[in-house]
Design a protein that fits this description.
The protein has six helices and eleven strands. With 220 residues, it is α/β, with parallel strands linked by helices. The protein is globular.
Length: 220
Amino acid sequence: MNRSSMTTVDAVELLGAVDPAHPLVVVALEQEARHFVTDFPVLVTGVGKVRAAVAVAHALGGGIRPRELVNVGTAGGLHLGMEGTHEIATVFQHDFDNLALHAVTGRHDGPPLALSAELAVTPEPAHALPSAPGGSAAPVLASGDRFVAGGPLRDHLAAIADLVDMEGYAVAAAGAMLGVPTRLVKYVSDPADESAGATWVESVDACARVLAEWVGTRLG
């Protein structure tokens, strides 16, 4: 490929310095963090699982570990009543066939991860997908590198998850590998249906204000 035709990948942006006494707040996009007023460091990763995982690894590559990783951001809601802010109990990759690959390789390279919303413990793998969504008491998040906007994919995910995003699993997996407690906090920005793209654009600023309030009042 001609070098001049290659697309440049935007750099990871770390605002502040990683500090073992404080959390590292992780967001996908600047739009989601634009109203933050906090002394905690903020990592802006870019969109998608690869960008999120690489950004966390890069930010922690110097060896300093934060008190915890806290990924805050927007997500699509898959059920009626899944509105507002939710701290995730279980996250899995909806575009990674963990069970089929395990049958071939004998390895679990991308299993679902269970998180403790109260204790923010390091995620522990669960070796089977949740049989049903957990609801508002124990929300299940599906992460994948597709923007879900209706269709058969949404119908499939609604049977096994409550919310859908594009980075949560990657942040949790990076935290688990690096031994850093991880929390995922998602605000429902759209219903993950055919209107999702337009709805996200229209609502992201209001969502960012809610996320900023959560960061300002819930992280100490």
